[in-house]
Amino acid sequence: MADPPGCCSTCATCLLCPYSCQWITAKKEKRKGLRTTKCDYSWFLFLFCVFLFTLVWLYFAIIILNDFHNFNEFIFRQRKLWLDWSLVLLIATAVLISYSSVLLVLALCLQLCGQPLKLHWVHKILLILTALVVAAAFTGLGIKWAEEWKSARISLQATGPFLHIGTVGGMTLLAWPLASFIYRTRSTGLRVFLLLVYCAAMIALYLAPLGITSPCIMEENQLPPKPALVGHRGAPMLAPENTLMSLHKAVECDVQVFETDVMVSADGVPFLMHDEELTRTTNVQAVFPDRTAQSTAFNWTDLQQLDAGSWFLERRPFPTVQSLSPADRNKTTEQRIPSLEQALEAAKQSNISIMFDLRPENHSDYQNFVNVTLGVILQSGIPLQQVLWLPDGFREDVKQQAPGVQQVYGRKRLKNEKEPVLHVNLPYQDMSSEEIRQYRQDNISVNLYVVNQPWLFSVLWCSGVSSVTTNACQVLKEMKHPIWLLPSSTYLMIWIVVDCVSFLIVIWAFVLLK
Question: Where, by residue number, does the polypeptide cross the bilayer (predicted)?
């Protein structure tokens, strides 16, 4: 191996120490026997693959933050333990990506300085463990949370153009250590192979925009109206979910619809509650320690004794809880489980619509639940067009008794639909941008849930969705424009400039290092 050009002894020693865990001077006579072998290059390749693997996982971790509250609720139902697991995920991911990044940078610098790539056995073990941990994370994601793969596909519509630019930049910088290695190695076959692989990768990257599509690549005058906001259980980042305080906070966020969940008490009173058990959002274990926490097993008098707000301050389901004012904190502790009648009255006074599921769908007395709930709606005096009916069970009976209620379907329209479907409510992963545009052209209102992150809201906005259900109404309310919007001509110019600059830098790197 040639002596490192332009690399001082101190610098080379400082690079070797953390990478090889050996304090060796860079003098030639001290480095005899420390030449880079094929095994060392294999470990460098493994290090590079682990870095890319963890980088992809970091991308996934950021994307699934939109839905992570669902994961927190799932863990609570299984283990009765509340923790914001997103913090654990981000910290662990940051440690893994930082470790592999530092090692990769050290290896590239060593290569540029002509130093041996002698990776210490401790680093080898840690890299294998890193790969196994990330592989286990991806496997768990595929088994327990498969819909997040669809979320990743949607995210590429928001990040694709920028990922392309970043990847081209990274591969362009890689030309320097690659050229250094190619000029030092004596194996002609290896030189040709590496050059072919690198050139093929760069050509693929230069042409990648041909396959990149995004609804936000459009002219400004083609941008659809901003989607309306539907408060998911109200404004759950600002107040305890499914309470009157949450409803009022949602109204302050300019939501047009209050989305909630309805159950019926043992004595026939419909009330707001999402979980089939009262444990997560009330103090039922303290008030009734000897009773089952099944929501429908309690009568209305017992339900009114429960505190439906203090849990919000204790468990802090969202980071926004810390920023609540003293007045809001006091109001939170006063919250009780509201009846559907109270919620309808509040919605009527605030002039917003109310959309709800009726739970549990598999209850033996579900038809009676439907009748009782419908009776409360008809007696409340709320304009029926402000009520959006989600439950599929006994829908035809509801249409007959209350024809003014808006029917919202949790499915896509069918080919041979007997009656026209005017409103659909679906997970955001279940509709493509093309389907959203088609529904919009056919005057079908599309509401997608649950949309919390601005990048996702931007993609759906550009796609033309009618409304989104969100936990973060206070964030999306402030968005006056999608995060980015590029005319196709501008994106074409950026693409050409980035590719040309990259090509020139790569050529310069190989010519200069020769």
Answer: 41-65, 85-113, 125-143, 163-183, 190-212, 492-513
Q: How far apart are CA 243 and CA 254, in angstroms?
A: 17
Q: Which of 237, 244, 213 is nearest to 450 (CA)?
A: 237
Flag whether pLDDT at 6 surpasses 50: no
pLDDT at residue number 2: 42
Angle at the Cα of 159 (from 92 to 100), degrees rounded to 5?
Answer: 30
DSSP label of 217: B
pLDDT band at 114 (very low <50, low <70, confident <90, very high): confident
Let me know: does 107 contact 44? Beta carbons within 8 Å: yes
Tens of pLDDT, residue by residue over 274-312, are 999 999 999 999 999 999 999 999 999 999 999 999 999
Confidence class of residue 10 from pLDDT cuts 50, 70 and 90?
A: low
- Give the H/E segment covering residue 407: strand 406-407
Residue range of the domain that includes 115: 9-214+492-512
**Do 69 and 200 belong together in one domain?**
yes
Residues 6+ apart with CB under 8 A from 142: 149
Same domain, yes or no: 205 and 237: no
- Between CA 347 and CA 257 the distance in angstroms is 9
Residue 290 covered by a domain: no
Is 188 contained in some domain?
A: yes
Distances (CA, A) of 409 to 187, 272, 321, 358, 446: 65, 21, 33, 13, 10
Residue 165 and residue 19 share a domain: yes
Q: With respect to residue 308, please indicate whether it lies within any of the assigned structural domains.
A: no
Are 219 and 259 in contact, with CB atoms under 8 Å apart? no
Nearest C-alpha neighbor of 280 from the set 265, 291, 269, 295: 295
Q: Clarify whether residues 497 and 359 are in a common domain.
A: no
What length is written for the chain?
514
Mean of pLDDT over the chain: 92
The 3-class SS string of 261-314 reads EEEECCCCCEEECCCCECCCCCCHHHHCCCCCCEHHHCCHHHHCCCCCCHHHHH
- pLDDT, tens digit (0-9, with 9 covering 90-100), for 116-126: 888 989 999 99
Task: Count how many domains the chain has.
Answer: 2
| Residue closest to 369 by CA, chosen among 261, 260, 268 | 268
CB contact at 8 A, 149 and 119: no
Do 208 and 253 belong together in one domain? no
293 within domain boundaries: no
Output the domain CATH number for residue 387: 3.20.20.190
Name every residue whose Cβ is closer than 8 Å to that of residue 365 and which is 6 or more positions away in sequence.
Answer: none
Instruction: Say if CB 387 and CB 405 are below 8 A apart.
Output: yes
Give CA–CA dist 274/346, Å, rounded. Answer: 19
Beta-bridge partners for 270: 264
Angle, vertex CA 15, rays to CA 11 and CA 18, nearest 5 = 140
- Threshold 0.90, pTM exceeds: yes
